[in-house]
C-alpha cells in the first residue's frame, strides 16, 4: 500500500523528497538506443529546456499544474505556471526500467490492468512519489475518459485544488461560446488558487509568443512536406510534444529548427525521397525498437504533428474563442479523423499508413475503421498493429515485426 | 398475484414483439441519461438497448475492437443482426468514449432514418447546465423537423408526469421489496426497470400500479436477517452473479446501477416554469455515474445509500474494459473503507457463461460476513 486510508501519499508530499525519488528511479534511463540528433542545435536546446523545465518543477517556489497533453497552456503561462501533462509523464517513465515498478504499483493499489498503460504509468509514477506536488490540476475530457478520471485522482492524492472544463464535441457558435466561457472561469479559478490577479497584458504577451513560435513551426512544416531531410519529421514531432506554446523558450526552439532546416537546404543536405509512412496513433520515444526499425527503412511522418489543432494560430482579438476552436478540434470523432488524416496524406504525399493501436486506447481502436476507409479510398496501403509502448506484458516486438516486414515487402 | 408482476416483466421480455405493433415511431437509446420525456412528448416510443439478445459477434469486434466493453459490443451485435429493424433510429449520448464510437459505427453499419448524438457535459457547473439545456433544445428541434410535429410545453409537462409516475412506482417496488412485502429479488427488480424503459411507459405504469395494489395492506414480516448488500458499477444484469450472492443468504437491497436505482432516483419538478430547464436540471443533476469527472459526488452518493440502507458490504461490478468504472474503483474503495464498508470487486463480461472463477470469491466474501 502506497496510499493512506485518506487516499494520500504515505511518505508525504514534499518536493525535495519527490525530486530524490525521481532521480533514484530514473537512474536506469535507457541510453542503449541513443541516436545522434539530425538537428543538433535544436535537439540540444530542446533537451536543455526539458531538463530545466523538470528541474524547476521540483523547486518549492515554482507553481506547477498538471493538465492533459492538449490543454491550452497559454492560460497557465500567463500566471507563471509550469505545466506537466500526464501523457509526457508516462513517456518519460516508459524510457526507463522504472516503468515496470510504476505499473506494478498501480495493480497493488487496485487499479485494474485492463486500462490504458499510459494512464496507468502516470498513476504509478505518482504512487511512487516521483512527481512534483502540483499547486493545481486542470481536468477536462481531453483526450479520453481515462485521463479525466486520472486528473481527478491526482487532485485527491496530492490534496490539490482542481478546476474542470468540458470540451463540447461539435464546433458550433454555441459550443465555442460555451467553451470560451469555461476558459474564462478557469482563469478565475487560477486567480483564486494562486492569489494572483489576471494580467491581460501578460496574457497577450503569452499569446504573441505562442503565435511567434507556431509561425516558425508552420514554416518548417511546409519545408518538411516538400523535401526529405532525415530526422526533420521526428524533430517536429518532439517539438509538438513539448507543447509549451507561449513560453519564450519555445520560440527559440522553433526558430532554431527553422534556421537549421534552412542551413541544410542551402548546403544541399537533403536525402532522396523515401517511401513515406504515416504513423497514426500514440508514438513512443525515438529510442523505441519499433520506431528505430521503421526509420531505417522508411520516412516516418507523425500524424499528431499535423493535427489541425497543432497548426492553428490564435486570434489575438478573439483569443478565448480561437482557443476554444483549437480545443474542440482535438476531440476525436470519425469525421474529423477521416478528414484530418486525408489532409495529412495529401499534403505529405503519404505512401502508406501504420495505425498503431495502443492497448486500452478505445478511441484509436474505435476510430481505426475511419482511417482504414480513407486509406482504401485513396488507395494508400494500410497496416494496423496492436502494441503497447508502456507495458511489455501486452506486446511482443517480434510478432509486430513480422507483420511490418510483410507490409514493407508489398510496398 | 405474481401473474400481475409477470405482466409487467412481459413488457420487457416480449418487447421485440410488442414494440413493432405500436402505432408510433420507435427510437432506441443506450444511456439512462437520455431524457425519455422529450421522445414521449414527440409521440415516440423510446426503448433502451440492452444487448441481451446477442453475445459479442466477431463482426462487431472487428469493426470496433475486442477491447471494448461487452455491453457496447453486444448492443452493436444486436444492431448488426437487425434485432431493432422496427426502429426509426437511435439517440446516443457521449456517456463514454466507447459509446461515442458506437454512435458512429451504428450510423454506418446498422442504418436508420433518425440519428442524434446528445452531449451531456462531464461537470455540473452553471455553464454546463445551460449548454445541456441547449443540447436538449437541439434534440427537440431535430425531432420536430424529422417527424413534422410540434412539441409544446404542455406535451413536455405531460411526458414529465408520465416518467415521474414510473419513477415513483419503481421506488415503491424497491422499498416494498426491501421490507419483505414483495416476493421479488434483485434480478426481478432489474427486470422491472428494464420493463420501465422498454418504450411502453403508459402500459408499464398501469400494470405495475395494478401489481403493487395487490400488496397494499400486506404486513411487512419481521426484519429479515442477512448481510445487506449494495451493488454499484457498470451496466449490469447478470442473473448468475445475483443468484450466487442471494444463495449465500445475503440480501441485495440497493442496486446503484443504471439498471436499478439510478434509473428511478429522484423526480423532475412538474411545476417548474420552464419544463426543458427542469429536465436538464434533473438529468445533469442526477449524473453521479463514473463518467462524470468529479468522483466525490459519486462517492458521496454511494455513502448516502450505504447509510440509508444500513449496508454491510458493497459489490463493485465493472465490465471488463469499462474505463470509467475501472478508474473510479481505487477511489471508491478508499471512500467506503473510511466508512468501514468492505468491498468486493468483480470484473466481468455482460454474458458470462462460466462464473465458476468468481463464484468462490463471492461465496467466501459474503458467507464470512453472514457467519
What does this structure look like?
The complex is a heterodimer of chains A (411) and B (371). A four-stranded parallel β-sheet of chain A has the order 2-1-3-4, sandwiched between helices. Chain A starts with 14 loop residues before the first helix and ends with a helix. The radius of gyration of chain A is 21 Å and the shape is globular. Chain A is of the alpha/beta class and 411 residues long. Chain A has helices at residues 15-25, 40-57, 74-77, 86-94, 98-108, 117-127, 145-157, 173-194, 200-226, 232-242, 248-266, 289-295, 319-330, 334-348, 362-378, 397-410; strands at 64-67, 82-85, 136-139, 162-164, 276-280, 299-302, 352-358, 381-387. The longest helix of chain A is centred in the middle third of the chain and has 27 residues, at 200-226. Chain B is globular, with a radius of gyration of 20 Å. Chain B has a four-stranded parallel β-sheet with strand order 2-1-3-4, with helices on both faces. A four-stranded parallel β-sheet of chain B has the order 6-5-7-8, with helices on both faces. Chain B has 371 residues and is α/β, with parallel strands linked by helices.
Task: Please write the string of helix (H) and strand (E) elements of chain B.
Answer: HHEHEHHEHEHHHHEHEHHHEHEH
Major beta sheet of chain A, specifics?
Answer: 4 strands, parallel
Largest interface: A-B, 50 and 47 residues
Distance from N terminus to C terminus of chain B (CA atoms, Å) equals 34 Å
Features:
heterodimer; A: 411 residues; alpha/beta; four-stranded parallel sheet; 8 strands; B: 371 residues; 16 helices; 12% strand; globular
What's the SSE blueprint?
The complex is a heterodimer of chains A (411) and B (371).
Chain A: H1 15-25, H2 40-57, E1 64-67, H3 74-77, E2 82-85, H4 86-94, H5 98-108, H6 117-127, E3 136-139, H7 145-157, E4 162-164, H8 173-194, H9 200-226, H10 232-242, H11 248-266, E5 276-280, H12 289-295, E6 299-302, H13 319-330, H14 334-348, E7 352-358, H15 362-378, E8 381-387, H16 397-410
Parallel strand pairs in A: 1-2, 1-3, 3-4, 5-6, 5-7, 7-8
Helix pairs in contact in A: 2-11, 4-6, 5-6, 6-7, 8-13, 9-11, 10-11, 14-15
Chain B: H1 2-13, H2 15-21, E1 26-29, H3 36-41, E2 45-48, H4 58-63, H5 70-80, E3 89-93, H6 97-109, E4 114-118, H7 126-147, H8 153-178, H9 186-196, H10 201-213, E5 228-233, H11 239-247, E6 251-256, H12 261-264, H13 275-285, H14 295-308, E7 313-319, H15 323-338, E8 343-348, H16 356-370
Parallel strand pairs in B: 1-2, 1-3, 3-4, 5-6, 5-7, 7-8
Helix pairs in contact in B: 1-9, 1-10, 5-6, 7-13, 8-9, 8-10, 14-15
Amino acid at each position: 500500500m502506497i496510499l493512506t486510508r485518506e487516499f494520500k501519499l504515505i511518505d508525504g508530499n514534499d518536493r525535495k523528497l519527490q525530486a530524490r525519488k525521481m532521480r533514484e528511479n530514473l537512474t536506469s534511463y535507457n541510453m542503449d538506443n541513443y541516436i545522434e540528433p539530425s538537428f543538433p542545435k535544436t535537439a540540444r536546446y530542446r533537451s536543455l529546456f526539458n531538463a530545466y523545465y523538470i528541474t524547476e518543477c521540483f523547486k518549492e517556489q515554482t507553481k506547477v499544474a498538471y493538465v492533459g497533453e492538449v490543454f491550452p497552456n497559454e492560460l497557465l503561462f500567463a500566471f507563471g505556471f509550469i505545466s506537466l501533462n500526464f501523457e509526457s509523464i508516462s513517456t518519460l517513465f516508459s524510457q526507463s526500467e522504472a516503468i515496470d515498478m510504476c505499473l506494478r504499483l498501480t495493480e497493488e493499489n487496485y487499479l485494474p490492468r485492463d486500462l490504458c498503460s499510459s494512464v496507468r504509468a502516470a498513476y504509478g509514477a505518482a504512487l511512487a512519489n516521483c512527481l512534483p506536488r502540483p499547486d493545481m490540476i486542470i481536468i477536462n475530457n481531453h483526450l479520453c475518459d481515462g485521463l479525466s478520471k486520472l486528473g481527478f485522482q491526482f487532485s485527491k492524492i496530492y490534496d490539490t485544488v482542481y478546476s474542470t472544463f468540458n470540451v463540447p464535441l461539435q464546433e458550433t457558435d454555441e459550443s465555442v461560446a460555451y467553451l470560451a466561457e469555461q476558459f474564462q472561469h478557469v482563469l478565475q479559478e487560477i486567480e483564486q488558487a494562486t492569489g494572483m490577479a489576471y494580467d491581460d497584458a501578460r496574457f497577450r504577451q503569452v499569446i504573441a509568443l505562442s503565435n511567434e513560435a507556431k509561425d516558425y513551426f508552420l514554416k518548417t512544416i511546409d519545408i518538411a512536406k516538400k523535401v526529405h531531410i532525415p530526422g526533420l519529421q521526428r524533430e517536429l514531432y518532439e517539438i509538438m510534444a513539448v507543447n509549451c506554446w507561449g513560453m519564450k523558450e519555445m520560440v527559440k526552439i522553433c526558430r532554431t529548427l527553422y534556421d537549421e532546416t534552412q542551413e541544410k537546404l542551402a548546403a544541399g543536405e537533403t536525402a532522396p525521397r523515401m517511401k513515406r509512412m504515416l504513423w497514426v496513433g500514440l508514438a513512443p520515444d525515438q529510442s523505441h525498437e519499433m520506431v528505430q526499425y521503421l526509420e531505417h527503412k522508411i520516412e516516418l511522418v507523425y500524424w499528431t504533428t499535423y493535427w489541425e489543432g497543432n497548426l492553428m494560430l490564435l486570434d489575438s482579438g478573439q483569443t478565448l474563442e480561437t482557443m476554444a476552436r483549437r480545443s474542440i478540434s482535438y476531440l476525436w470523432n470519425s469525421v474529423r479523423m477521416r478528414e484530418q488524416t486525408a489532409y495529412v496524406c495529401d499534403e505529405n504525399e503519404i505512401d502508406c499508413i501504420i495505425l498503431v493501436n495502443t492497448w486500452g486506447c478505445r478511441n484509436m481502436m474505435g476510430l481505426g475503421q475511419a482511417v482504414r476507409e480513407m486509406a482504401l479510398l485513396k488507395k494508400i496501403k494500410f497496416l494496423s498493429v496492436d502494441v503497447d509502448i508502456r507495458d511489455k506484458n501486452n506486446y511482443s516486438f517480434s510478432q509486430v515485426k513480422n507483420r511490418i516486414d510483410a507490409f514493407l515487402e508489398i510496398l | 398475484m405474481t401473474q400481475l408482476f409477470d405482466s409487467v416483466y412481459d413488457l420487457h421480455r416480449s418487447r421485440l414483439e410488442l414494440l413493432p405493433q405500436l402505432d408510433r415511431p420507435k427510437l432506441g437509446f443506450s444511456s439512462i441519461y437520455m431524457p425519455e420525456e422529450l421522445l414521449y412528448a414527440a409521440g415516440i416510443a423510446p426503448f433502451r438497448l440492452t444487448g441481451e439478445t446477442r453475445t459479442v459477434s466477431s463482426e462487431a469486434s472487428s469493426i470496433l475492437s475486442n477491447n471494448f466493453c461487452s455491453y457496447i459490443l453486444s448492443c452493436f451485435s444486436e444492431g448488426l443482426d437487425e434485432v431493432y429493424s422496427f426502429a426509426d433510429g437511435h439517440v446516443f449520448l457521449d456517456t463514454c468514449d466507447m459509446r461515442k464510437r458506437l454512435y458512429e459505427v451504428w450510423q454506418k453499419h446498422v442504418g436508420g432514418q433518425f440519428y442524434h448524438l446528445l452531449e451531456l457535459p462531464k461537470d455540473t457547473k452553471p455553464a454546463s447546465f445551460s449548454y445541456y439545456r441547449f443540447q436538449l433544445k437541439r434534440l427537440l428541434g431535430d425531432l420536430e423537423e424529422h417527424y413534422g410535429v410540434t412539441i409544446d410545453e404542455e406535451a413536455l409537462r405531460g411526458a414529465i408526469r408520465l416518467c415521474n409516475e414510473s419513477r415513483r412506482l419503481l421506488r415503491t417496488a424497491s422499498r416494498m421489496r426491501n421490507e419483505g412485502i414483495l416476493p421479488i429479488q434483485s434480478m426481478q427488480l432489474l427486470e422491472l426497470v428494464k420493463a420501465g424503459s422498454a418504450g411502453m411507459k403508459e402500459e408499464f405504469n398501469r400494470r405495475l400500479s395494478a401489481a403493487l395494489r395487490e400488496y397494499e395492506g400486506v404486513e411487512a414480516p419481521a426484519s429479515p436477517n442477512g448481510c445487506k448488500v449494495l451493488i454499484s458499477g457498470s451496466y449490469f444484469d447478470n442473473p448468475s452473479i445475483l443468484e450466487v450472492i442471494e444463495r449465500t443468504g445475503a440480501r441485495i437491497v440497493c442496486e446503484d446501477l443504471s439498471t436499478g436505482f439510478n434509473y428511478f432516483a429522484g423526480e423532475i419538478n412538474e411545476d417548474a416554469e420552464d419544463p426543458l430547464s427542469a429536465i436538464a436540471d434533473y438529468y445533469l443533476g442526477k449524473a453521479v455515474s463514473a463518467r462524470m469527472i468529479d468522483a466525490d459526488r459519486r462517492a458521496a452518493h454511494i455513502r448516502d445509500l450505504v447509510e440509508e440502507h444500513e449496508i454491510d458490504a458493497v459489490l463493485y461490478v465493472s465490465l471488463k474494459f469499462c474505463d470509467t468504472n475501472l478508474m473510479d474503483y481505487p477511489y471508491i474503495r478508499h471512500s467506503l473503507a473510511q466508512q468501514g464498508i468492505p468491498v468486493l470487486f468483480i470484473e466481468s463480461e455482460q454474458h458470462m457463461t462460466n462464473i465458476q472463477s468468481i463464484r468462490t470469491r463471492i461465496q467466501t466474501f459474503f458467507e464470512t460476513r453472514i457467519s
